[in-house]
């Protein structure tokens, strides 16, 4: 994908702070971190997001994420890591190349995760049924 931002980073046409690379994946610092050490893990083969990435590339990304979670946590002295992935624009995806966020967390850093609410009566049963039918 010639005009994809992260493909340009993979090809070295745009600079990045690389933290890890293997045959299938690349990891680099997010240019605008939630906390220092915020790292993006991407497949070298272009895909848009979770909906079109190959199983093989996804497994490679997963392995790199697992390795890097410990490395990043230790390196920045974090107290935990959030692993997040935005898929499609309405879910907050700004860059159209599959990427997983590793976000180091510090006790008391004040970052709020999403609000949650209980299911109304009967809705959980109906949603479970609908999801199972789509698999
Ligand atoms: P998302 O909203 O999940 O698509 O996240 C895209 C992320 O890419 C954002 O957190 C940006 O800060 C980050 N980003 C955008 N451009 C660059 C770049 N050139 N180098 C590193 N990170 C970038
Ligand atoms: Zn790309």
TrEMBL record:
SUPFAM superfamilies in the record: HIT-like (SSF54197)
Positions occupied by motif Histidine triad motif: 97-101
PROSITE patterns in the cross-refs: HIT_1, HIT_2
Active site: 99 (tele-amp-histidine intermediate)
UniProt keyword annotations, A-Z: Hydrolase
Superkingdom of source: Bacteria
Keyword flag Hydrolase: yes
Domain HIT: residue ranges: 5-112
The keyword Hydrolase belongs to this UniProt entry's keyword annotation: yes
GO biological process: nucleotide metabolic process
Pfam family, one: HIT
MF term (GO), any: hydrolase activity
Protein name listed in UniProt: HIT family hydrolase
Organism: Candidatus Kaiserbacteria bacterium RIFCSPHIGHO2_01_FULL_53_29
């Amino acid at each position: 994908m010639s005009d994809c931002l992260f493909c340009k980073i993979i090809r070295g046409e745009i600079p990045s702070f690389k933290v890890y690379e293997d045959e299938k994946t690349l990891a680099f610092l997010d240019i605008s971190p939630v906390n220092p050490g915020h790292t993006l893990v991407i497949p070298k083969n272009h895909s848009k997001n979770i909906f079109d990435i190959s199983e093989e590339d996804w497994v490679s990304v997963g392995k790199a994420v697992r390795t890097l979670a410990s490395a990043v946590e230790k390196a920045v002295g974090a107290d935990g890591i959030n692993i997040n992935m935005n898929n499609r624009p309405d879910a907050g995806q700004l860059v159209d190349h599959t990427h997983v966020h590793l976000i180091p967390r510090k006790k008391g850093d004040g970052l709020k995760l999403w609000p949650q609410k209980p299911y109304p009566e009967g809705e959980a049963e109906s949603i479970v049924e609908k999801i199972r039918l789509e698999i």
